[in-house]
Write the structure tokens for this entry.
Amino acid sequence: MVTDHDTGRIAWMAEGHRPDAVHAFFDAIGALRAAFLTQVSANGAEWIPAVVRARAPQAQICLDAFHIVKWACQALDKLRTRLAGELRAVGNTTRPPPWTRACERCARTTGS
């Protein structure tokens, strides 16, 4: 799915989540219109930047906020888990600080 971030409207859709689908988008808009793209936001799939660079090399590739927050919560959860384990290993069994619950809520919300 391609969304126009200025309007919030869906600009183009295709079935599948693979390079062929993104190439189909660029085929549909053509090289002239692709040359006007300035930013492309993506979900972090490793193959998307290669397609965008090949078809719209001038466009800046950005990651979407949802996945950035998800990955940050996952990293914080790993750190929290490791630190809690280290504290238990030395005999500290106090409850974790309240901010860790925010990461747990994020993990439940994002399915990670």
Notes: The chain has two domains: 2-63, 66-110. Residues 74 and 112 are 7 Å apart (CA to CA).
